[in-house]
Amino acid sequence: MTKTSGEDPRKTDVKVSLIGGHRLTGETLHERTLTASLIGGADVDLTDVDIPDGADLRITKLSLIGGVSLKVRADVRVEVHGLRLGGVKDDGPSEPGGPTVRVDAWGLLGGVTVRRS
Predict the structure, then answer these.
(1) Could you read off the pLDDT of 11-22 as tens digits, one per residue?
(2) In angstroms, rounded to a whole number, what is the distance separating the alpha carbons of residues 81 and 49?
(3) Which end of the chain is more exposed for a tag (fewer CB within 10 A), N or C?
C-alpha cells in the first residue's frame, strides 16, 4: 500500500475502463481507490501488503456489470457497502481489531467475494 504524504492524506487513485476489469495489488493502491467500468470487475490482492493496525483502506467499484474479488490476510476486517445484485461472500471470519478494508460496490450485476489467506 502506497502511503500518502502528510500534506494530502485523502489521495484517491482513479482507474477507468469501458470494457474490461482492473487487477489491483497492494503496492499500486493508495488509501482510497476508485475503479469504474461499464463491464468488468476488480480483482484486488492485498495478501502481501502490511496494512498497519487502525488503517482504513477504501476501494470503490462502479460498474454496470462486474463484481469485486478481494483477497486479504486473516487479520484484516472487511466491510462491504453499496448496492448490487449478487450479494457478498466472505469465506472466513475476521479477527477483531486490526486494519480495515472497506469495499463500496455499486452496480447492477456482480457481487463481492472475499477470500482470506
Answers:
(1) 788 889 989 889
(2) 22
(3) C
